[in-house]
């Protein structure tokens, strides 16, 4: 554990949705891109197919980032993986599939990439998504030197993850920090809070860290904002701008 970051034993600069703005989000190509640029940590979103297989995906529907359409929650895994999740971004990524969570885990472990797994349930599937993702993460990272960090905006998903795999660290995601943040973090036994960067100030960062928890700011795409946040004491940044806020920005 880093002495100057006692509550954050993880990389400080983390690639949003795998490869930020430089590769199609939530794909294996994005994870490889981050690794090739020298990053040590990635964030990606995980939700369930209709038949409860965790996949990397952000939106509730397939439309924006694949050549498919309709709700992800209604499509079985073997159909989701046939869609093209790369062409919408650039021709060079044509044919890049929606990856299974298990495939992303294998790549992260092989590449030495630390993972912040955002549990991103489709509406109404909060508990099952938290339970299944936590169960699988526990198996996939069994014996790994550093465990992944499970984060979610959904307290139900985090509660299910806690019940399923209490040994996996959790983080509460929020845009506006709720007044009862400390009780919520206590209840969910969270190791960190992930907050929209423009809602943070020095006092709030210190108050969260005083409860022995890390603070991550998302999504920080401006180098001046990034510098200010690090000076404020924020432990880690999630960024899309991998070419501006590079792996050694905080060094
Ligand atoms: O985990 C930080 C960030 O990924 C949360 O927002 O919508 O990009 O998943 P979103
Ligand atoms: Mg996310």
The residue ranges in which pLDDT falls below 50 over 5 or more consecutive positions are: none
Number of strands: 9
* Strand line-up of the largest beta sheet: 1-2-4-5-6-7-8-9
Strand content: 15-25%
Calculate Rg over CA atoms: 17 Å
Ligand identities: SN-glycerol-3-phosphate, magnesium ion
In the CATH hierarchy, what is the architecture at level 2?
Alpha-Beta Barrel
The oligomeric state of the chains shown is: single chain
Element-by-element helix/strand order: EHEEHHEHEHEHEHEHE
Largest beta-sheet details: 8 strands, parallel, barrel
- Principal-axes shape call: globular
Task: Please name the CATH topology.
Answer: TIM Barrel
- Give helix % range: 25-40%
Task: Report what the structure shows.
The chain has 251 residues and is of the alpha/beta class. The chain has one domain (13-59, 99-239): Phosphatidylinositol (PI) phosphodiesterase (TIM Barrel, Alpha-Beta Barrel). The chain has eight helices and nine strands. It has helices spanning 28-36, 77-80, 101-111, 126-140, 155-164, 181-187, 202-209, 223-232, and strands spanning 13-15, 41-48, 54-56, 114-119, 149-152, 170-174, 192-196, 214-218, 236-239. Strands 1-2-4-5-6-7-8-9 form an eight-stranded parallel beta barrel, surrounded by six helices. α1 packs parallel to α3 and α3 (101-111) packs parallel to α4 (126-140). The protein is globular and about 45 Å long. It starts with 12 loop residues before the first strand and ends in a 12-residue tail after the last strand. The model has no long low-confidence stretch (mean pLDDT 97). Bound molecules: SN-glycerol-3-phosphate and magnesium ion.
């Amino acid at each position: 554990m880093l002495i100057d970051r006692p509550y954050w034993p993880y990389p400080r600069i983390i690639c949003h949705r795998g490869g930020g703005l430089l590769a199609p989000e939530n794909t294996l190509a994005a994870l490889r891109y981050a690794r090739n640029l020298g990053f040590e940590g990635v964030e990606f979103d995980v939700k369930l197919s209709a038949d409860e297989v965790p996949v990397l995906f952000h939106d509730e529907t397939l439309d924006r980032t694949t050549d498919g359409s309709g709700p992800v929650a209604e499509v079985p895994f073997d159909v989701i993986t046939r869609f093209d999740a790369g062409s919408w971004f650039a021709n060079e990524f044509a044919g890049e599939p929606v990856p299974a969570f298990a495939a992303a885990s294998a790549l992260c472990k092989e590449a030495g990439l630390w993972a912040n797994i955002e549990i991103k349930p489709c509406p109404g599937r909060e508990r099952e998504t938290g339970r299944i993702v936590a169960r699988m993460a526990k198996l996939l990272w069994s014996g790994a030197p550093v465990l992944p960090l499970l984060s979610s905006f959904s307290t139900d998903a985090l509660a299910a993850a806690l019940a399923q795999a209490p040994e996996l660290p959790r983080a509460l995601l929020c845009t506006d920090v709720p007044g009862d943040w400390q009780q919520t973090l206590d209840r969910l036994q969270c190791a960190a809070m992930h907050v929209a960067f423009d809602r943070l100030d020095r006092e709030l960062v210190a108050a969260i860290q005083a409860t022995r928890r890390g603070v991550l700011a998302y999504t920080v795409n401006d180098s001046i904002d990034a510098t200010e946040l690090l000076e404020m004491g924020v432990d880690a940044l999630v960024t899309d701008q991998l070419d501006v806020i590079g792996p050694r920005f905080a060094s």
